[in-house]
Every structure is written in structure tokens, then in C-alpha cells.
Hints:
Elements: H1 2-10, H2 13-42, H3 47-71, H4 77-97, H5 101-128, H6 135-164, H7 168-179
Helix pairs in contact: 2-4, 2-6, 2-7, 3-5, 4-5, 4-7, 6-7
Amino acid sequence: IADYLRSVGRFTPAAKLFLFGQFLAGISGATLWVLRNLFLKASGMGEIEIGHALSAAALGILVVGVPLSFFMDRGGLKWYLAAGVLAQGSGLLVTALWPAAGPVYAAAFIAGAGGTLVGVGTSPFYMRHSSPEERPYLFGVGNALGPAAGLVGTGVIWALAKSIGEGVEAQRQMFFVSAA
């Protein structure tokens, strides 16, 4: 643990900021996974439509992931990462604003594509912003943030449900908080 703490202290400012952003995105993602299906079902969508939304997200991952691996070095990594975060947040907002089949399918596709942009860009970012000695620690901390953010995100949903209440409108408000 002492080695990790010393290494985290030596991470570049860009790496620390990226890890912080990754943690916040993880919280948002956790709230999405806890809340999305419940919200869509409460909004009147059936199980088949919800399954189609999940498939649209997977299609977005596939359509963007394969070509992205060839073009990531062109155009600048920071633009891909920023576009990915924007796409994920937009997908949450569209789902909250228009919980009908068509908009939700499009939002899921866009959010899935955005998640791929961030996912594919993370490793090159780590490589560019760390020394060979720091890399195992940076990758380790980055991977550990996922479950930690998941716990925090689930706690956020629980706290919001206690304060806002339950039902479709309460869930919509939670989506807005998560997208922010």
C-alpha cells in the first residue's frame, strides 16, 4: 500500500485529473446501471423495448470500437475522450427527457459509442502520462476506481431515493443529477 501511495503522489497532474474524472464518470455510470431499466419500465417501455435499447448500446460499441482502434492516433486523444464523455452524458439526458423507444434507442447507441471512445482512449492516455515505473500503479489505481465509484454511485441513488422519493419523476431527476 505504501508503494501505491508514493506512486500516486508522483503521478502527473494530467493523470491525477484524469483519474478524478474517471471516478466521477464511474459514479454516473453506476447510477445509470442501477436506474435506467427501472426508469424505462416505469415510463411504460416493455421488456422487449428495453432489450432493444441494450442492443443499441452494444451496436454503438461495435460500430465505433473497431474503426476507432485504427484512427485513435489521428485527431488527438483529448478530443476523442471529450467526445466520449459528452456522448455518454447526452445519452443520459436524452433518456431522461424522452423515454420513448426511438429516442432511447438513439441515446443508447450514442452512449455506447461514447463509452467506447473513453474506454479505447484510456490506455493510451495512461501510457502518455506516466513513466514506465509508474504505469503499473496508474493502471492499478484506474482499475480500482471502477468498483469504488460503483459503490459511491449506488449510495448516491439510495440517498437520492430517500430525499426525492420514488416514481418516474423522481427517477427522471436522478438521471439529471447523474448526467451532470
